[in-house]
Amino acid sequence: MPKTEINVNGVTVKTDLVVASISDSRVRFTDGSWCDVNTGMVICKGKGYIHITTSPKDLPGACIVDRVVFDSNKIQAPGIKAVEIQNVSAVLEVRPTHEDRVTVTVTGAGSAYQDIEVAQDGATLYIKDKGGTGVHIEQMVVSGRGAVGIHLGDSFNVSISESSVSSVQIGGSTSASKKRFLRITIHVPIGTRLAIHEVDGNITIGDTYGEVRLSTAGTNHTTIGRIGDLELVKSGVGDVFVESVQGNCTIKNKGVGSVTVRDGEVAMLHAKVSGTGPIQYKGTATNAKLIIKGVGGIEVTHVTNEPEIKLKGVGRIVVSNWP
Hints:
The chain has strands at residues 4-8, 11-15, 19-23, 26-29, 34-36, 42-44, 50-52, 64-71, 82-86, 91-96, 103-109, 116-121, 124-129, 140-142, 148-151, 158-161, 167-170, 182-188, 193-199, 203-205, 212-216, 222-227, 230-234, 240-253, 259-273, 279-292, 298-303, 308-311, 317-319. It folds into two domains: 4-62, no CATH class; 67-319, Pectate Lyase C-like (3 Solenoid). The protein is elongated, with a radius of gyration of 22 Å. It is an all-beta fold. The strands form three sheets. It has a 17-stranded mixed β-sheet that branches. Strands 3, 4, 5, 6, 8, 10, 11, 16 and 18 form a nine-stranded mixed β-sheet that branches. The chain contains no helices and 29 strands.
């Protein structure tokens, strides 16, 4: 394909794509790709390239490739029950969908998306870095139904919203060796169970209404929507906020940051603090086992039956309806 040079507002854009339109600072191409000479952002949808010769100093000006690397419909694999992600340095987004379909889209600078390996083994979809060097996570968002498991490292951002896979697993180890930008977007079903381990980065989980198993570390902050059972092990200095839990709830806070559950109705609440960070559960629980071995406190709004309380640290346990 012939190479083209375009001058937009005094900035030269080099490409082998066909220009569809130019509006102000943005150039759009016939394959859906686009670039903006003011911001330096470049999105490549196809196999071509786009290069802005002069970009703002704080932006690389590199081509950002946005590519679907897996689609269960296209390979006739609707029976996926689990997704595992390991050793990935990226922003991760998990979105729920009402379709019986799993898709994985990788967005990153240049050919960085090629470092991500997606493979299916039976009912499990594996997503990992081919180099296996670990991750640095910056944010994660999940909203789905079924089962999702996520295990990441120190430079990764994930978001999952609505879809129809029944299990997703994401995993990895921490490593600062890869600082490139990557975003991984996964579509899975509502009700998907989530298993998220050793994530070092901000995490947002949407209204999955499924079981969530999560362990966090580092300075990441986590926001979770409406879910089923919750099993959370938190370390590091980041905070965790959960909108609502329905089922059983286990929270172990080993770090500095706080854990807050805004609402919920659970059969069993097991809350344990062994660090300095507090736990707040503002819903109702039929039974509760509350333990402090550290400095942080535990506050619970309502427990139907008399709670089991063990205080071995200097923190304070408060159950509002059991003075």
